[in-house]
Amino acid sequence: MDDSSLTWDDGALVTIDQRGLPHEVRELRLTTVDQVIDAITTLAIRGAPAIGIAGAFGVVIATRAHTTVVDAATQADDEHGCGAAEQVGQRSAAVSRESVRAGLSGGGVVDVAAVEAEADRIAAARPTAVNLAWAVERVRARIPEGADAVLAETLGMLAEDGRVNLAAATHAADLVQQLCGDRPLRLLTHCNTGRLATSAVGTAIGALRVLHERGAVTDVIVDETRPLLQGARLTAWELAEAGIPHRLTIDSAAAWAMATGQVDAVLVGADRITANGDVANKIGTFGLALAARHHGLPFIVVAPESTRDTAMATGAQIVVEQRAAAEVTGFGGVEAAPAGTAVFNPAFDVTPADLVTAVVTENGVVYRNADTFAGNGRAASSAS
Ligand code: MRU
Questions:
Q1: What is the C-alpha R_g of the chain?
Q2: What's the complex ipTM?
Q3: Separation of CA 127 and ligand 1 centre (Å)
Q4: In whole angstroms, what is the distance from residue 268 CA to residue 291 CA?
């Protein structure tokens, strides 16, 4: 559907710095683990699937940085017990003989323990979206095989992401039309779930794009998404780029848009979906779900399977990231609140499963709760 927003170029992870959008489209070239972690924590790269893929590229960078190139003769010696492993072990007292031995691969010696430590640091950069830990875990298994193997796994993940998002988006579009009927739709979305937040297509925005291509969208209400304005800065930019009709509103107007009959369904993404169907997503999502429930509107969550954390029983266990006070006390360098004002700034909230009409992934509808929806298309509540 579109080009990848994350690419690998000659040892660098290349992407758009989302902090500059929409007014400045600047390229970011990341070549160190610290740069990748900084990009994730400062939201230069953001959105659950995107930070997962970026984290995996971070492990590629770490593996390259902790690989010692050895020549063929030295490698042959090592097979007889007196080669590269010992030499590298001598060079760095901190490198255990076992970890180096485990990483001897393809002409290079990987310090597996050092890369594992970097992988841990990357996975901890943001705690709420499970995609980051999931992606780092997936490539971690390839570290002993060397950087090329980690890169191959990461590029595979990148290629999968667009396909998976398109499948989830198409299933979600089908569901919206099934629930709302074959009529022009007015939809509401929150935060940014488009190609910037993934690598391509997007999840909830992907569904908006599929519906738009079917000629089914008359209006999308875009929440600005305080405090960092992912809706105003990124979603409005992506929808304009895709030619999808939209109106930007302040977050606190969303319930009123529903009350005044301007919304047929709410579509959002997710950062973590627990086994019982609770959904962590951008702060403000819970309020939207409550308002949608009050008005009997479908509240639909679109996400890849990698966002489902079936090992976590309920949303009560989710760690909700708290962010800096400065994000709330002002914007763009302009202070709004009195100096020293105490702040509550959770980046996410958790919507209880009983407010979620459906969770849709590339596998189709994986959770459904008809009680939330007053319209047609009712079905029994179920989770799988
Ligand atoms: O803090 P952010 O901007 O990374 O939060 C992003 C969201 O909450 C998205 O809705 C979620 O990651 C899904 S992106 C497909």
A1: 23
A2: 0.99
A3: 12
A4: 14
d(CA 257, CA 266): 11
269 C-beta closer than 6 A to ligand 1? yes
CA–CA separation, 129 vs 90, rounded Å?
40
Q: Is 198 in the pocket of ligand 1 (CB under 6 A)?
A: yes
Choosing from 223, 264, 271, 309, the catalytic residue is 271
The whole-chain average pLDDT of the chain stands at 90
Q: What is the DSSP secondary structure assignment for residue 322, as one 8-state letter?
A: B
| Lookup: tokens for 107 | 């002409």
What pTM was computed for the model?
A: 0.91
Rounded to 5°, the CA angle 143-149-150 comes to 55
Neighbours of 65 (CB within 10 A): 16
| 74 Cβ inside 6 Å of ligand 1 | no
Q: Which residue has the tokens 């190139």?
A: 69
Annotate 181-241 with DSSP letters as a single string: -SS-EEEEE-S--STTTSSSS-SHHHHHHHHHHTT-EEEEEEE--TTTTHIIIIIHHHHHH
Residues 251 and 224: beta-carbon distance below 8 Å = yes
Q: Would you give the DSSP letter of residue 299? A: E
- 177 Cβ closer than 6 Å to some ligand 1 atom: no
What stretches in the chain show pLDDT beneath 50? Answer: 1, 81-99, 101-102, 376-384
Q: Which of 43, 134, 191 to mutate to test the pocket of ligand 1 (most atoms within 8 A of CB)?
A: 191
191 close to ligand 1 (CB < 6 Angstrom): yes
Burial level of 336, CB count in 10 A (0-12/13-18/19+)?
exposed
| Encoded tokens for 315 | 């949303």
Six-digit token string for 366: 């994986």
CB atoms within 10 A of CB 69: 10
Query: Does the annotation count 271 as an active-site position?
Result: yes
Question: Quick one: which atom of ligand 1 is closest to the CA of 203?
Answer: 15
pLDDT of residue 76: 54
| Cα–Cα distance, 313 to 303 (Å, whole number) | 18
Phi-psi group of 313: left, alpha or beta (phi > 0 → left; psi -120 to 50 → alpha; rest → beta): alpha
**Ligand 1: residue whose CA is nearest its atom 8:** 282
Question: Cα(276) to centroid of ligand 1, in Å?
Answer: 20
How far apart are the CA of 180 and the centre of ligand 1, in A?
A: 26
